[in-house]
Amino acid sequence: MKILAVYCSKGGVGKTATSVNLAYTASQNGLATLLCDLDPQGASSYYFRIRPKKNFNSKKLLEGNIRKYIRATDFDDLDLLPAHFSYRNMDLKLDRKKQEATALREALAPLAEEYDLVFLDCPPNLTLLSETIIASADMVVTPVIPTTLSMLSLEQLLKLCKKIGVDKTKIHAFFSMAEKRKSMHLDTIGKYRKYKLFMKAVIPYMAEVEKMGITRKPVGAVRSRSVASLAYERLWKEVEQRGLV
Ligand SMILES: Nc1ncnc2c1ncn2[C@@H]1O[C@H](COP(=O)(O)OP(=O)(O)OP(=O)(O)O)[C@@H](O)[C@H]1O
Ligand SMILES: [Mg+2]
Fold first, then answer.
1. What is the enclosing helix (H) or strand (E) of 176?
2. CATH topology of domain 2-241
3. Could you tell me the maximum CA-CA distance found in the chain, to the nearest angstrom?
């Protein structure tokens, strides 16, 4: 079982859209996939029309008491652990002295026989939870809008890796919500895509992705050969090639 975190400290860069669409693509490729919605705002859970059970909470998550709270989605090979409102206090529940740096990995370990792949849809934070996510994941996929502030978040992520002793080759960035008509986007992509840190696949700004708020489905489940669906398939192939599975 591999753990893939979709993480960026910056908000609104496409983490949830990426988590939902890549998890769907992985499951369509036959991998037993679990998507853990770690954001108390619960956007991934919303897209799959799934609500958490009332008695679930962040303490249970960190104790690895997870299995009975996992729900099936409408799609084969794709399950979801919905977010819970209590996750907003996750940083307080993470106790440096009591828990391993890889607390999330330990919590998910009992599921190793059931799933090939676990996606973590992460909240936009740069906190102790972020450290735990980065230390626990096998691979960190980071959406970067081709703008200065998003690039700054990426720099901060690399700095955090260094600080907590995590190998920065775990980080795989890609350009997200890219717009051809914006010269800053084109310049930034042109300048940085040659670095190994960046995957070649670019996810453009697409109305189909925005419409997920209405369809409440992964883009590939709405139309399997759409531009958006093919873009996420290309990103998925690259994630695979980079040695995840
Ligand atoms: N490629 C895209 N094209 C157009 N709209 C997009 C794209 N990716 C994401 N969006 C839209 O941008 C908004 C933010 O996306 P998303 O929720 O995936 O970001 P996020 O990084 O998870 O945000 P948060 O930090 O709040 O969790 C949403 O309304 C989403 O529909
Ligand atoms: Mg999100």
1. strand 171-178
2. Rossmann fold (3.40.50)
3. 51
**pLDDT, tens only, 114-169:** 999 999 999 999 999 999 999 999 999 999 999 999 999 999 999 999 999 999 99
Pocket of ligand 1 (CB under 6 A): 11-17, 39, 43, 124, 177, 203, 205-206, 209-210, 212-213
Compute, in angstroms, the gap from residue 177 CA to the centroid of ligand 2: 14
167-172: long-range contacts, CB 8 A cutoff, minimum separation 24: 170/134, 170/137, 170/138, 170/139, 170/140, 171/140, 171/142, 171/197, 172/139, 172/140, 172/141, 172/142, 172/197, 172/199, 172/239, 172/242
Stated pTM of the model: 0.97
195 alpha carbon to ligand 1 midpoint, in Å? Answer: 24
Q: What pLDDT digit, counting tens, does each position of 95-110 carry? A: 776 778 999 999 999 9
Strands 78-81 and 71-72: antiparallel
Please state the atom number of ligand 1 nearest to the C-alpha of residue 177.
1
Instruction: Give domain limits for the chain.
Output: 2-241
